[in-house]
Specification:
The protein has 148 residues and is an alpha+beta fold. The protein has one domain: 3-Layer(aba) Sandwich (Aminopeptidase), CATH 3.40.630.30. The chain is built from three helices and seven strands; from the N terminus they run βαβββαβαββ. Strands 1-2-3-4-5-7-6 form a seven-stranded mixed sheet, sandwiched between helices. α2 links the parallel β4 and β5. The longest helix has 15 residues. The chain is globular. The chain starts with a strand and ends with a strand.
Length: 148
């Protein structure tokens, strides 16, 4: 078994042509893949096992005239066949590293309080739980990217 975690960029579209079942919600669209990977504000870290993508974490970094750059973590998923191997934490670490490289001060993510696996992952990855302004079953986690 050859397991690799890496960030993808423009020119890496072929990596997403081999994806394990139940990693992405929908089939990979080549045109959307090209657009995503060519946009320098969009980031995706993938876990690859013998040439097949078995997990990922994606996000976008953004700026505002009165705030430092932040990284919004959009989605994290790992193939059921690879649960329990630390791949969620590994792809999160790579994605947070991309945020640091783009001088983001913080990363943040939202999930359902009832999603035990996601909550455990975000805590293990160093997220601090917050509840400000959230309603219902939602919970947010913030990651301070100013420290290593």
């Amino acid at each position: 078994m050859t397991l690799e975690v890496r960030l993808l960029g423009a020119g890496d579209e072929a990596v997403l042509s081999r994806v394990a079942p139940d990693v992405f919600d929908e089939p990979i669209d080549p045109a959307l893949t090209r657009e995503f990977l060519s946009d320098p504000r969009h980031h995706i870290a993938v876990a690859i096992d013998d040439g097949v993508v078995v997990g990922f974490a994606s996000g976008v970094h953004y700026i505002h005239p009165d705030k430092p750059a932040e990284l919004f973590v959009n989605e994290v998923a790992v193939a059921p066949s690879h649960h329990g191997r630390g791949l969620g934490k590994a792809v999160m670490a790579a994605l947070l590293g991309a945020g640091r490289a783009h001088r983001c001060s913080v990363a943040w993510v939202l999930t359902d309080r009832s999603n035990a696996a996601a909550n455990a992952l975000y805590r293990a990855a160093g997220g601090a739980e917050g509840e400000e302004g959230l309603s219902g079953d939602m919970v947010g986690y913030a990651f301070d990217l100013r420290r290593a």
